[in-house]
């Protein structure tokens, strides 16, 4: 049974791409050895509002529980509540090099065009390495854009081990199946993301009417056939979305919708999406109305995480020559 860790940014409203692309699988495959970290330390690498960060941290926890993460199984916790993350990040700062951090494409993208870039933003991948290495994670389920950070984590761990002796476990990234990669409904060549504007992203927090409207207005392609093809990215994306929520194959869906007009097809997709998200939305509303229980679950998650993280730090401190 592989030890798993993944991280979620507490930024903004989660969308159906987060749910279908990652969280549904986290919930389905969860085990007591799985750790999920809401990365609020990472969130302050960019300008932010403190009150909003606090609210979003709790809200994303509500969504993750609503998606099926069970506090009795996997450990969901808030990064800043386990102080070992910052501590290990410092030690790893002295193992990582400026050169390798300069090569990180996420840093290049996020810092581009900014007048003032924090050291924290540059150092972001080292903190991420600490997240992963504290738990001896063997597998890190992430989007493809995070592969570079997980590879850097391996390099840092390897260098630490060769310098100080075998201590840290080398992780590998795992990716969701291709079918669950949902693209923006308006900009169909881009992965669904709230930062592209909300017209093309179905937010988990949307109402059913809003969801329906966004799907009915989704970009389609020329022609009239409901068929997946490279020159039909809009319809292909809606078919992928339908496949992800129904579990049907693209082939079955193409057969089922053969001769169907785009409008009727979209109406069915909207119906199916709302049907799948409905219980998640309901559960989220329940959790959000009793935040005391959510804070309690997070505190328990942090206790479990700390236990493992503290063990790793004891070994690391000893290895690098700190007094015990
Ligand atoms: N950088 C990740 C992202 O942008 C979030 C993250 C932080 C993460 N720490 C992590 C992902 C550890 C996996 C493991 O999505």
Describe the model:
The chain has 324 residues and is mainly alpha-helical. It is built from 13 helices and five strands. It has helices at residues 16-28, 40-43, 50-66, 84-93, 98-102, 105-111, 119-134, 147-164, 208-216, 233-246, 250-256, 262-288, 291-320, and strands spanning 4-8, 34-38, 75-78, 139-141, 172-174. The strands form two sheets. The chain has a three-stranded parallel beta sheet with strand order 1-2-3, with helices on both faces. Helix 7 (119-134) crosses helix 8 (147-164). The chain is globular and about 75 Å long. The mean pLDDT is 95. It binds tryptophan. The site of tryptophan (TRP) has 13 residues, from strand 1 and helix 7.
Summed up:
By secondary structure, the chain is mostly helical. It is built from 13 helices and 5 strands. α8 links the parallel β4 and β5.
Q: Which class do the helix and strand fractions yield?
A: mainly alpha
C-alpha-based Rg, rounded: 21 Å
Low-confidence stretches: none
Helix content: 40-55%
Series of H and E elements? EHEHHEHHHHEHEHHHHH
The neighbouring-strand order within the major sheet is 1-2-3
- The number of E-state strands comes to 5
Q: Which molecules are bound besides the chains?
A: tryptophan
Span between termini: 32 Å
- Strand fraction equals 5-15%
Shape: globular
Total helical elements: 13
Averaged pLDDT: 95
Query: How is the main sheet built?
Result: 3 strands, parallel
């Amino acid at each position: 049974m592989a030890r798993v860790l993944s991280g979620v940014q507490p930024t903004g409203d989660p969308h159906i791409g987060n749910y279908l692309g990652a969280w549904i699988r986290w919930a389905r495959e969860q085990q007591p050895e799985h750790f999920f970290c809401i990365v609020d330390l990472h969130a302050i690498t960019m300008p932010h509002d403190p009150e909003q960060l606090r609210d979003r941290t709790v809200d994303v926890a509500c969504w993750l529980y609503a998606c099926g993460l069970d506090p009795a199984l996997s450990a969901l916790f808030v990064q800043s509540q386990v102080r070992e993350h910052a501590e290990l990040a410092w030690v790893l700062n002295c193992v990582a090099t400026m050169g390798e951090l300069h090569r990180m494409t996420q840093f290049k993208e996020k810092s581009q065009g900014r007048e003032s870039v924090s050291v924290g933003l540059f150092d972001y991948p080292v903190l991420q390495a600490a997240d992963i290495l504290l738990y001896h994670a063997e597998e890190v389920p992430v989007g493809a854009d995070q592969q570079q950070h997980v590879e850097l984590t391996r390099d840092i761990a390897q260098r630490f081990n060769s310098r100080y002796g075998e201590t840290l476990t080398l992780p590998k990234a795992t990716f969701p199946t291709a079918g669950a990669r949902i693209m923006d409904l308006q900009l169909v060549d881009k992965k669904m993301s709230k930062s592209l504007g909300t017209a093309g992203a179905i937010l988990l927090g949307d109402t059913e009417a809003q969801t329906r409207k966004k799907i009915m207005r989704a970009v389609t392609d020329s022609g009239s056939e409901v068929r997946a093809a490279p020159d039909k990215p809009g319809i292909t994306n809606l078919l992928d979305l339908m496949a992800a929520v129904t579990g049907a194959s693209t082939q079955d869906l193409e057969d089922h919708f053969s001769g169907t007009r785009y409008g009727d097809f979209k109406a069915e997709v909207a119906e199916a999406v709302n049907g799948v998200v409905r219980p998640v939305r309901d559960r989220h509303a329940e959790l959000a109305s009793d935040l005391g229980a959510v804070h309690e679950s997070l505190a328990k998650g942090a206790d479990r995480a700390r236990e493992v993280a503290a063990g790793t730090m004891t070994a690391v401190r000893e290895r690098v020559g700190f007094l015990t």
